[in-house]
Design a protein that fits this description.
It contains 17 helices and 19 strands. It is α/β, with parallel strands linked by helices and about 525 residues long. Helix 2 runs antiparallel to helix 4. It is globular and about 95 Å long. The structure holds nicotinamide-adenine-dinucleotide.
């Protein structure tokens, strides 16, 4: 395979991207420095002031063309994703490309209505002569910093949402998966977007930090809690608004009435898809003691059937970890759990014959909250399972975490599941499914507690890309307003009477208050 070369910066300032399945070089990309990043932001700002003046129809035309290109070139795009992220082709198509196409459709269907100025009716009678409008204004230049685990869908959805609402974007992709973002840039340019409106600045953490220090107007950051905290501190120092989409430790609750076959299939997919490297992965599983043994048996039987291999193998179910450091974290969590008394039922070690980054899908039983595997984000193909006796205990266990991204509950009794869902502290709770909320374009995506601040996707995701401007227009331009100067006793009588008119419980007082207020107003000499 030919390595991809992008020109511009000398070799010393380039990062080499490797295929996580084979270790082969995928290509190299430049490390942008802070001056180049500032220059990119300045170009984006100039282009944005023109872009914000274009009609929504014009912006939608470009998004429409982009979606057509993504649809037509899906296999080639999937190949780029697989080469640098390692995931199975089935996942590259379903969780990356399909998600983007669906999100674009959502934007095309909703943006005209979303950006239409919204009337703000006034209840106060003296304000009824004014027309209130809520306008949604683009921030200007949105910085996007992305992780490696969904290198195409995450930045695409965020960039399309920013662009269609009138912003420009400067995108810093993960240093492990920049080519997927360069695909987004290529496709948007092919769709007719002014190249300055979306610029990809490649590099490591330092490039992200430089983007944060530049004159961007808002930052959408997706990544780990540790980096998210550093980003939040730097953003606070310059009052930069941020959305933080951070890590998770998502619990799955399996109630005693759950279908063991269905719930075990869900747990296995939820823990092992994308090799467990999904922010919404099942990271903790709690099963009612009445079905605990049967559930474990079913999970193990399904886990050992999974085919581990490179994403290029169409038969592969579970791909590699992104790099060896991630694999070592997974191994250390598994080892810690076993040392503290957990039972290893499947996997538990790397699959060295496939390459340096493959880890066998692992099932652990008898885990508890003293173990790192139940407290820290593992981000690998591990399903740790423990039993519970009562709903109360299940809720307490699920909520006993610093994270709050998502959760899932399995029970055929939807009413019971929904009632329980209300008690879980998570940005999303799914009843009888998991992870797929990310593919529901209408659903807001984001967490509580350490899992982040703000939302992407859906209506809330659109709101993050704009600031609300309240536009008020008075219907009596030739009239001096009741609350302007002059002050004095008549003004006080006018206001006291007005308060009684509006808020007194006593009807007589209200009528008298109204009359006193009107009289006092006529006695005043406004200037
Ligand atoms: P990471 O925090 O290591 O890196 C994320 C991005 O931040 C990268 O582009 C990186 O170069 C950049 N970065 C690093 N240091 C920086 C700094 N000081 N200032 C600015 N940018 C900096 O995360 P990762 O390993 O790439 O991704 C995995 C993490 O992302 C997991 O914790 C996962 O749960 C989380 N994630 C969350 C969501 C979500 O929607 N909530 C989605 C995907 C991944």
């Amino acid at each position: 395979m030919n390595a991809i070369q992008t020109p511009v910066v000398p070799a010393a300032n380039r990062i080499t991207i490797r295929n996580p399945a084979t270790g082969e070089t995928v290509g190299t990309v430049p490390c942008f420095g802070s001056e180049e990043i500032s220059a990119a932001v300045a170009k984006a700002r100039a282009a944005q002031s023109r872009w914000a003046q274009t009609s929504i129809a014009e912006r939608m035309k470009i998004v429409r063309r982009f979606t057509q290109l993504v649809c037509d070139e899906k296999d080639a795009i999937a190949a780029v994703i697989i080469r640098e992220a390692g995931k199975p082709v089935a996942e590259a198509i379903s969780t990356e490309i399909l998600v983007v196409l669906d999100a674009a459709k959502f934007l095309l269907n909703h943006v005209p209505e979303f950006l239409r100025p919204e009337p703000v009716p006034h209840a106060n009678p003296v304000m009824k002569l004014k027309r209130g409008l809520l306008c949604r204004e683009p921030y200007g230049v949105i910085g996007i910093i992305s992780p490696w685990n969904y290198p195409f869908s995450l930045p695409s959805v965020q960039a399309l949402t920013a662009l269609i609402t009138g912003n420009a974007v400067v995108l810093k992709p993960s240093e492990f998966t920049p080519f997927s973002s360069l695909e987004i840039e290529r496709l948007l340019r092919a769709a007719g977007l002014d190249p300055d409106l979306l610029q990809v600045v490649t590099g490591e953490g330092a490039a992200g930090s430089a983007l944060l220090q530049s004159t961007i107007d808002k930052l959408i950051f997706t990544g780990s809690v540790a980096t998210g905290k550093r980003v939040a501190q730097a953003a606070a120092a310059r009052l930069l608004p941020v959305v933080l989409e951070l890590g998770g430790k998502d619990p799955m609750l399996v109630l005693e009435d759950a279908d063991v076959d269905v719930a075990s299939s869900a747990a296995v997919w939820g823990a092992f898809m994308n090799a467990g490297q999904t922010c919404l992965s099942v990271e903790r599983c709690y099963v009612h003691e009445a079905i605990y043994d049967d559930f474990l048996k079913a999970c193990v039987a399904k886990t050992v059937k999974l085919r581990v291999g490179p994403g290029t193998d169409p038969a592969a179910d579970v791909g590699p970890m992104i790099h060896e450091r991630q694999l070592r974290i997974v191994q250390s969590h598994v080892d810690d759990a076993i040392a503290r008394g957990a039972l290893l039922l499947a996997g538990g070690k790397p699959v060295a014959q496939l390459g340096a980054n493959f880890f066998a899908p692992t099932v652990l039983a008898g885990v508890d909250h003293s173990m790192a595997i139940m407290r820290e984000e593992t981000f690998g193909p591990v399903l740790p399972v423990r039993s519970f006796k009562t709903e109360e205990e299940a809720v307490a266990l699920a909520n006993d975490s610093e994270f709050g991204l998502a959760a899932s509950i399995f029970t055929p009794n939807r009413k019971r599941g929904e009632a329980l869902a209300r008690r879980l502290n998570a940005g999303t709770v799914m009843v009888n499914d998991l992870i797929s909320c990310f593919g529901i374009s209408e659903a807001p995506h984001g967490g509580v507690k350490a899992s982040g601040i703000g939302r992407t996707h859906g209506h809330f995701g659109l709101e993050e890309m704009v600031w609300p401007k309240y536009l008020d227009s008075d219907g009596m331009p030739r009239m001096k307003k009741l609350w302007w100067y002059s002050y004095g006793p008549a003004f006080q009588r006018q206001m006291n009477g007005f308060i009684e008119l509006l808020f007194s419980k006593d009807l007589t007082k209200r009528i008298r208050g109204g009359m006193r207020s009107a009289r006092s107003y006529l006695q005043r000499k406004p200037f």
